[in-house]
Amino acid sequence: MEWKQLLSAKRWGYETRKLSDQIDARSEFQRDYDRLIFSSPFRRLQNKTQVFPLPGPVFVHNRLTHSLEVASVGRSLGRLFYTMTKKQNSNIDVEVPFLQEVGNIVSAACLSHDLGNPAFGHSGEAAISSYFTQGAGLAYRELVTKEQWEDLTHFEGNANALRILTHPFNGKDDKGFALTYTSLAAIVKYPCRAIDGHVKGSHHRKKYGFFEGEKPVFDKIATELGLQVDPENADGYLRHPLVYLVEAADDICYNIIDLEDAHHLRILSYEEVEDLLLPLCMDDQLRPRLDGLKDVGSKVSLLRAKAINTLINDCSRVFTEKQAEILSGTFQSSLIDALDQPLVDQMKKIEKVSIKRIYNAPNVVQIEIAGFKVMNALLGEFLPAYLKEEKTKFDEKVVAMIPEQFHATSDDVYSKIRSVLDFVSGMTDVYAVDLYRRIQGITIPSLD
């Protein structure tokens, strides 16, 4: 793979349009970022759970604030990589003109990396999958292909993000978000179908990155950008190199910032947070600064900032040093796992504490259980009603609640199921709970 081909400003749906010669305040990749910022799917992330329940008496991160912070870290990672590369090759701007845009590309991809995640965090994904593996959705198994069934039984937010950005939803622009090919490729962590994914030990097929319906979409993107076909999977590809930077930005943010939220919620003490973050800070002058602060929250913020700074610098260095391996597809690790061993060990320690103390905290587990109940109930109402050939009056009322944009334009069962999943997975936590209560008769809608 070569940077000159990997970095393309060609837009999805506008492949034949030439770039304007007029002077503009924004590059093509900055346009991608702005389109995402002003979009409805992005705004809805403010009411989608990151880890802790929303809303609460203490501010914690939601999917929107998380995505903004990941985008900020991603921009720094990309910019540092470009700066390091330019020091090694002063002629790089002539050889690869768009390399200077890597920071903007990565930040746009980071902004959209969680766009397809349903309500209630990762438990929302599991709830949708379980409806087909253990619930009433099992009845549809014989009505779809084996490849399509793998999609349904392994709902994946990352694959859903690509669908949201490119799918011609009914009544909407048939070009989707019309993002650049490179920004689209940079969000797909595991560029393969569900049936080819979930391969233990494979960095390119650990999960999957596009639904069966979006395979032609990604094939087109991969061909344009010169992505290498996976030698172990002829129907998949090796990830776009910039995926490593998007992945690193996400890893840095959730590992570090979840600790900050846990402290605000008094799940972890200041001493515990300091013990976890201080070894990452790499600053001999930090102790006097910490001792000089009386506000504990300010101490945690300083530790968080310093830890993130260390990880950004080291991940950028690894990405630059391992550039040849990454471009050839032989690099088989995340950037975080390729850092110096003391940093890797400390990140593993943070991960262990997070799993034990944060992700299994009572209020986190409670919202996961609630998410299962709500998502399964919504699918149980909308899917059967939408799929029935001969609908009852009740079914017609249920289907009438699905917005026109989510109605399938094809009559096959998979397309219809996918349409209902588009509707349900796009709901915020608040909307999903409110709709669940209304259709279950727990609350009666007001006539106001």
UniProtKB/TrEMBL annotation:
Question: Is Signal found in the keyword set?
Answer: no
Q: Which residues form the HD/PDEase domain?
A: 59-264
Task: Name the SUPFAM superfamilies on file.
Answer: HD-domain/PDEase-like
The answer, when asked if Oxidoreductase is one of the entry's keywords, is no
Identify the keywords attached in UniProt to this record, alphabetized.
Answer: Hydrolase
Name of the protein this chain belongs to: Deoxyguanosinetriphosphate triphosphohydrolase
- Please name the source species: Sphingobacterium corticis
